[in-house]
C-alpha cells in the first residue's frame, strides 16, 4: 500500500479565534520535506502547516498527523499590536 504525505496549510489568528484550514498539497516524498513545507507556507502565508500521512491521495482514507510546522514570520499582523 502506498503512503502519501499531504501538507495542509492553516490560517491562524488567536485574537479572532481563527483556526482554519486553507489548502492541501501533496508532498514529494523523494524531496526534502522541510523545504517543500517552507515553500507552501510562504505561498499561502500560513503560520501553521501540518503534514499528514495518508493511504490515499486525498484525506479521505486513514490519516495520521505526522508533523506540525510553525512559521512565526507568517503569523497574523494583529499580534504586533498586542501587549
Ligand atoms: Zn490575528
Show unreliable segments: none
Ligand roster: zinc ion
Total of DSSP H or I helical runs spanning 4+ residues: 1
Distance between the termini: 50 Å
| Biggest pleated-sheet summary | 4 strands, antiparallel
Oligomeric state of the chains in view: single chain
What class do helices, strands and sheet pairing give? mainly beta
SSE arrangement, N to C: EEHEE
On the 0 to 100 scale, the average pLDDT is 90
Strand order of the biggest β-sheet: 2-1-3-4
Task: Give a brief rundown of this model.
The protein is mainly beta and 83 residues long. The chain has one helix spanning 33-44; strands spanning 4-13, 18-26, 48-54, 63-70. The structure holds zinc ion.
Structural features, described:
- With 83 residues, the chain is mainly β.
- It has one domain.
- The chain contains 1 helix and 4 strands, in the order ββαββ.
- Strands 2-1-3-4 form a 4-stranded antiparallel beta sheet, with helices on one face.
- A hairpin with a 4-residue loop joins strand 1 and strand 2.
- The longest helix has 12 residues.
- The chain is globular and about 45 Å long.
- The N and C termini lie far apart (50 Å).
- The model has no long low-confidence stretch (mean pLDDT 90).
- The site of zinc ion has 6 residues, from loops.
Amino acid at each position: 500500500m502506498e503512503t502519501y504525505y499531504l501538507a495542509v496549510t492553516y490560517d491562524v489568528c488567536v485574537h479572532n479565534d481563527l483556526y482554519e484550514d486553507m489548502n492541501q498539497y501533496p508532498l514529494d516524498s523523494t524531496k526534502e520535506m522541510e523545504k517543500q513545507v517552507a515553500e507552501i507556507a510562504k505561498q499561502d502565508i500560513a503560520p501553521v502547516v501540518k503534514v499528514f500521512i495518508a493511504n490515499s491521495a486525498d484525506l479521505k482514507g486513514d490519516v495520521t498527523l505526522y508533523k506540525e510546522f510553525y512559521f512565526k514570520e507568517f503569523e497574523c499582523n494583529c499580534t504586533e499590536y498586542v501587549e
